[in-house]
Amino acid sequence: MARALPATVLALLLLAACSSSDSSEGTAGSDPSLPAVASTTAPPTSPAPGSDAATTTPATGAPTSGSAAPAPDLGNVALQLTEIGRFDHPIAIVERDGVFYVAEQAGRVLAMDADGGTPREMLDMTDRTTAGGERGLLDLAFSPDGSHLYVSYTNNDGDSRIDEYAMSADGVDTSTRREVLAIEQPFANHNGGGILFGPDGLLYAGYGDGGSGGDPQRNGQKPSTLLAKLLRIDPTPGGDSAYTIPPDNPYASGGDTRPEIWSTGLRNPWRFSFDAATGDLWIGDVGQNAIEEIDRVPAADGAGKGTNFGWSAYEGSARYNDDQDAPDAWMPVYEYEHGADGCSVTGGFVYRGQAIPALQGAYVYGDYCAAGVRALVADGNQVTDRAVLSEQPGTVVSFGTDAKGELYVVSLGGSIYRLDPA
Fold this sequence. Notes:
Strand order of the largest sheet: 1-26-25-24
CATH class: Mainly Beta
Low-confidence stretches: 1-66
Distance between the termini: 44 Å
Radius of gyration: 19 Å
Number of helices: 1
Largest sheet: 4 strands, antiparallel
Strand content: 35-45%
Number of domains: 1
Number of strands: 26
CATH architecture: 6 Propeller
Helix content: under 10%
CATH topology: Neuraminidase
């Protein structure tokens, strides 16, 4: 059975992933690429699977069509971090029926009541994954009706997997494990691994370009591979397949392009989410050695359907590999250079809670290399305001939401915090 690495060793491996060096050997940490898990919110009431992703219904706490959305005012945001629990290298948090489920990178899923108490082990898959660097249990998500749990991880061979478990009255029914998706990984880094159910009720999964550095296999612009892509599937088995292709996927007809693909040109998406009020898609895409980027595709523009985010023709908005061409590349809504602001972006959520009114409508995110919780406000493709909301925590790897739209931040160091008004 695989065991979690000692904290000091794991921390060194993860910090190496944020170094500015590059390596043709493709070892974990060869460049700044620690992925961050796309924690999910409780899904809003959704149209049937396969319907247009641009159609959304606001989740609890989001403004409805009959009320004007409040304008974010970052200058008047005052918040504090309230620790709700400590875990062994937590990497993702989701909520189901008022209970928080926390994924630990070594391969355990624990449940914790919203009002605290001792966490209860729901799933132990440490025998199927080896934690270290950018590998291990990377994310989890519940089906819209809460009947199934999905876990995203790398197996003991370092390849990406998504498994499904049925939920019972006692928690996770481990006897029902079913493999939904399998992707071979050529290198140890850039695994991505974020999963969530979108506002259309379908399962989205984000994967990096396969690793090493500089996209040596040119997977970013290669439509025949699932690497460097955002995928969209119906996890219901279809025919001889473990899942079904939504007929309105941009490449559903197949051919030389994989029909699971929703978006292309991603280097290492470390957390993505849909705005619970608008359906806009937000992605934190980890850069190479120079630029971190945050992408936003409004629901009116397809929420990522067929969008090419440019890697590896571009790193952020800067040209990267000259032998790659992406004339239709979607440019980031925000990007920043490596330095004091960090070196490995962790994508988050647009805040739609009620506890911090001045934050409503702002996108909250972090960076693994630089401590703190940050926010930005976007008007179209322009950022109109940015702020550091908190100087803590460090090693931010994920964010999560509850059914009311309140936000939680996960530190790989062990703590999970709720964002509360100060």
